[in-house]
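Entry 14. Ran structure prediction on the chain below.
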Amino acid sequence: MAKGQKITKKELKQPDQFQSGASRLLEYIAENRQKVYLASGIAGVIVLLLVGWGIYQYNYEQHANAMYSRAYNSYKLSGYTEDEDKSYREAVTVYEELIDTYSRSDAARLAYYNMGNIYYALGEIDKSIDAYQSFLKQSKRFGMMTSLAYYGLGYCYEARKDFDNALVSFKNSNKTIEGLHFTSMNYANMARIYEKKGDQTKALEYYKKAMEQTPDPLLEALVKNKVASLG
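Output, structure tokens:
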């Protein structure tokens, strides 16, 4: 109301809008008590279900992470010995149990990637490929890990002398890669595969790409030697 403006008697007699609205709401609740109680009950159940699901999901992920840590901390991919063979296989057993028990967890998805690394270290290439591919089917949330899985897959196919799939894997690795060093390594890998395929022109092309990208002096020196021998 503007300053100095007087309230008329007519306005004083009119009911307050808030009070009027509140009265209508109370009248509706009184007339539709059962409906209101039912709606309130449903809303309460929904809230309880959401809270319960959140707690369940949190505990689910926590248990999965604990199992993942137990497996991951039980071995080191530092070379093959009989002791490491045993620790690798024990870790794989825990990873498989994790995947069976907590299949929807992030830890289970990462377990596939680690199993790919372990099987490659053990020389079980087919199992390594299966594990990497299982990870890649559900790895959209893991950008860098996706690149590493394709990287490992490339080496697996190379070991099987499946050079075409090795090239595809190394190229896919570069699509989601982060960092010049890793990019240059993939180019060097692709160059090596082309060289094994007998395509010297492509091999030289990719060795040059690796040389242009690498910040590593040692890798640069190795690639320069390759370029010199092919060029």
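The two ends are 90 Å apart (CA to CA). Will compare against last week's run tomorrow.
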